[in-house]
């Protein structure tokens, strides 16, 4: 009998010991890696479908209940909101978008459905996602045309515009603002009491302080201003504790505790990639694999935040990581390291090259500014140039403007990100690019001003 009770105790202790070992490994990893890079605040939570097995707050004035900007992780919550309308019978996945908002127009009259928007297979280009979508009342009054570059359902192209439109659809079908509907029908049923939707001004005092990198230094900054129609795609605010509950709902077929927040069949549809295979974009989730295990995930970034949510359905595990700064790769590498630990692998260090790259950006910026200042001083000291060079300088100025405009244009074409967005997301990198392209234009302009101000030679 004693042997029987000893065996039972041993098997009951195994999960506890495994959980303790997991906590120790994640703690050691965070302690080691966060010393290497200036990350102001990090929240980590690991859950199963019915319990929280790890939570960690790193940084000052932060806790699992502190709201962070989610970036594109917002898309998963917006998709959840759309599916609650489907569950209520107010919407169908294969319903054309124009039957919901007739004043929306797509180039070519293409039949784009709710499912296409959810899967990013509408044919709307990534670059269009940086355009501002008007409010619902303005779209209904004056209409709005969206350009498409391919037939709907043919290929996947990630675009914020898809989810901005879904936000309008939620408002149109529910008769409530996006903020009201999400609060009542998504956040409340799952007990997400620290999740917020609002403008950057409204969120200023209710979310964690925001930071942006200037070289290797994290500097306190306000979140960039954004339109309310962009919130469904990238500006919902939530806490680690709340997002842990949301991940639990996804692990538990739409149920959190005793609350059924979404029909299990719709939750399955939400997790099914548009390709119907093992990899691809589903509805607010990317499906793939990690260390041989099925993985559903979504990453998100704003000018002042980086976040990630991860589901390992076969292991009944979920992970959420929130930060209040947007590094170029360190945060993503940190998330991958934690993910590796919870899947039984070895955690690699996030790229240490980023710190060197940040210093390089700072030094290059100083070099370009110093070079520009030197040339300005040299021009001032040498006085007016010879008037015989006037036509040559005019041609040089025109060529420098063409090179500047061409460089900025090519940047947008190659990255599919408008340069103005780059200045908001990574201001130190954007400033360096602007200085590198624009310093020649500035010098040529000063030279031209000198020439125009110089007295004409006597005839």
UniProtKB/TrEMBL annotation:
Chain segments annotated as transmembrane: 356-374, 394-411, 431-449
Record keywords: Hydrolase, Membrane, Transmembrane, Transmembrane helix
Gene Ontology molecular function terms on file: hydrolase activity
Domain Beta-lactamase-related, first and last residues per copy: 37-328
SUPFAM superfamilies the record matches: beta-lactamase/transpeptidase-like
Protein name: Serine hydrolase
């Amino acid at each position: 009998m004693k042997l029987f009770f000893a065996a039972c105790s041993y098997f009951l202790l195994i999960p506890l010991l495994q959980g303790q070992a997991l906590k120790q490994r994640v703690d050691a990893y965070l302690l080691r890696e966060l010393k290497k890079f200036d990350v102001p605040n990090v929240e980590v939570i690991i859950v199963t479908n019915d319990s929280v097995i790890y939570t960690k707050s790193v940084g000052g004035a932060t806790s699992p209940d502190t709201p962070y900007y989610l970036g594109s992780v917002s898309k998963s919550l917006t998709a959840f909101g759309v599916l609650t309308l489907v569950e209520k019978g107010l919407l169908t996945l294969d319903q054309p978008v124009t039957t919901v908002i007739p004043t929306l127009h797509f180039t070519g009259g293409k039949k784009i459905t709710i499912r296409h928007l959810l899967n990013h297979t509408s044919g709307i280009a990534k670059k269009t996602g940086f355009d501002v979508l008007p409010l619902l009342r303005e779209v209904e009054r004056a209409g709005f045309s969206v350009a498409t570059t391919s037939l709907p359902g043919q290929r996947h192209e990630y675009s914020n515009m898809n989810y901005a439109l879904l936000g309008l659809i939620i408002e149109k079908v529910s008769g409530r603002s996006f903020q009201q509907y999400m609060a009542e029908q998504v956040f409340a049923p799952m007990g997400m009491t620290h999740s917020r939707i609002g403008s950057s001004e409204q969120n200023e005092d209710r979310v964690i302080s925001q930071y942006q990198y200037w070289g290797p230094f994290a500097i306190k900054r306000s979140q960039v201003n954004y339109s309310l129609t962009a919130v469904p795609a990238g500006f919902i605010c939530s806490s680690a504790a709340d997002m842990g509950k949301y991940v639990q709902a996804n692990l538990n077929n739409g149920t959190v505790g005793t609350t059924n927040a979404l029909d299990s069949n719709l939750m399955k549809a939400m997790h099914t990639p548009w390709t119907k295979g093992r990899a691809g974009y589903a509805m607010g989730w990317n499906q793939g694999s990690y260390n041989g295990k099925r993985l559903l995930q979504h990453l998100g970034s704003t000018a002042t935040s980086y976040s990630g949510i991860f589901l390992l359905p076969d292991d009944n595990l979920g992970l959420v990581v929130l930060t209040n700064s947007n590094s170029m790769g360190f945060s993503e590498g940190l998330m991958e390291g934690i993910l590796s630990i919870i899947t039984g692998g070895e955690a690699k260090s996030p790229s240490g090259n980023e710190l060197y790259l940040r210093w390089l950006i700072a030094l290059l910026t100083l070099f370009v500014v110093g070079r520009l200042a030197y040339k300005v001083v040299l021009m001032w000291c040498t006085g007016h140039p010879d008037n015989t060079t006037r036509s040559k300088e005019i041609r040089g100025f025109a060529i420098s403007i063409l090179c500047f405009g061409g460089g900025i244009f090519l940047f947008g074409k190659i990255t599919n990100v408008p340069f103005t967005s780059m200045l908001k997301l990574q201001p130190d990198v954007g400033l360096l690019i602007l200085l590198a392209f624009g310093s020649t234009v500035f010098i040529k302009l000063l030279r031209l001003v000198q020439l125009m101000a110089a007295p004409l030679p006597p005839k």
